[in-house]
From TrEMBL:
One biological process term in Gene Ontology: methylation
Chain residue ranges for the region called Disordered: 1-52
Ranges annotated as spanning the membrane: none
Molecular function in Gene Ontology: N-methyltransferase activity
UniProt name for this protein: Histamine N-methyltransferase
Organism: Zonotrichia albicollis (White-throated sparrow)
Length: 357
């Protein structure tokens, strides 16, 4: 992967970057799920331990004896979804992904359904289905005669209901059967184990959701094991070159992770996948997020964006003033953002990882 820059508006590109990156060493040794326990990366880029992330070492937190009022954003899934929607409105996230779907997905899915009359697709954390439907339309186009089963694992009832509305309004979904499961990725795995099922899939995707599982390597390994012999696993995460990396490397230990989320970027995946001997391709997608409203006191959308950036429920009202001051200052710096025409554009570049069966 080269050091793809990110594109603020007005620069020459929209979506531009992609390319073959690497493969795991053939026959390399066993995967150690403990190697990167659900983690943020430490200051030197090494995985940090959960205890370190949760505050012991952080000078900005109150002493352990004083309970912090900060709660993880996922403790209120409705507010999480609300903040995600504002994030989508102010960012080019889905547009960047759409560029990938147009330019690269046809090659990725070129052989997943060869010789099959039914193609099984599993979406983990499918949200309101915007990206899912784009992916399905490419699979539909490549395999016009096949029936497609699309199963969605998604814990938010609100997201599922938006997804269903979108499907009801779409006109190009012939022969695609949808099934929604209101559960997390971990719950899906437990349910399958309890039912002693190992249903296989031709295409599995996890778009911007791996932050929310308990054990990232074990989750990737589990879902990879469900791939059919020609299947593919697509993972999208924030890029290791994004503003997220800068912000979270410095402040992950100050944010309330509460065992509900962690920081991981596409930059963490190669080590994990290499140690499992898996082959993969990486693509870098430039994207930005307009965070100007975060700097206007009392701006509701700005507050929701700050929640999303810090994974903290009501960050503005619950963060200690010194932490808030530092985070606001950090968000304007070049490691996180670019200031153009009086607006602050946070570097929201993403990494796409396509794992071979
Ligand atoms: N893939 C969609 C949504 C990404 S937002 C898109 O890119 O637009 C992350 C999604 O993951 C949310 O819809 C959230 O409800 C869901 N989610 C949160 N925790 C999860 C978990 N443990 N397992 C599966 N999905 C989860
Ligand atoms: N920590 C959430 C990062 C993200 N999710 C970006 C979607 N886009």
């Amino acid at each position: 992967m080269d050091g793809a820059g990110w594109e603020a508006p007005g620069r020459e590109g929209g979506w531009v970057k992609g390319g073959w990156i690497g493969r795991g060493p053939a026959g390399s040794t066993a995967w150690d799920p403990r190697s990167i326990p659900r983690t943020a990366r430490g200051a030197q880029g090494a995985p940090a331990r959960r205890e370190e992330l949760q505050g012991a070492a952080c000078p900005l937190l109150q002493p352990p004896s004083m309970a912090s009022p900060m709660r993880n954003l996922l403790t209120d899934l409705d507010r999480y979804v609300q903040s995600f929607r504002v994030f989508l409105e102010r960012s080019t996230e889905h547009q960047s992904m759409q560029g990938f779907v147009e330019r690269h997905l046809p090659d990725v899915i070129a052989s997943i359904g060869n010789g099959k009359s039914t193609i099984n697709v599993l979406s983990i954390g499918g949200g309101a289905g915007e990206m899912d439907l784009q992916i399905l339309s490419k699979i539909r186009a490549r395999y016009p005669g096949a029936t497609i089963n699309n199963d969605v694992i998604e814990p938010s009832a609100d997201q599922i209901s938006k997804y269903k509305e979108r499907v009801a309004q779409a006109s190009n979904l012939e022969n695609i059967k949808f099934a929604w499961h209101k559960e997390t990725a971990d719950e899906y795995e437990s349910r399958m184990n309890a039912e002693k099922k190992t249903k296989k899939w031709d295409f599995i995707h996890m778009i911007q959701m791996l932050y929310y599982v308990k054990d990232i390597p074990a989750t990737v390994r589990y879902f990879h094991s469900l791939l059919e012999s020609q299947g593919k696993l697509l993972i999208i995460l924030v890029s290791g070159k994004s503003g997220w990396e800068t912000l979270w490397k410095k402040y992950a230990s100050s944010f309330p992770l509460e065992d509900l989320c962690c920081y991981v970027s596409s930059g963490d995946l190669p080590r994990m996948l290499d140690s499992a001997g898996l082959k993969y391709q990486l693509y870098e997608l430039p994207s930005h997020l307009d965070i100007t409203s975060c700097f206007t006191e009392g701006d509701k959308d700005g507050e929701l964006l700050l929640d999303f950036l810090t994974e903290t429920l009501d960050f503005t009202k619950t963060a200690p003033p010194e932490l808030k001051r530092q985070v606001m200052e950090e968000l304007r710096k070049p490691g996180c953002s670019e200031i153009r025409d009086g607006k602050v554009f946070f570097n929201n570049s993403q990494g796409v990882i396509v794992v071979e069966p």
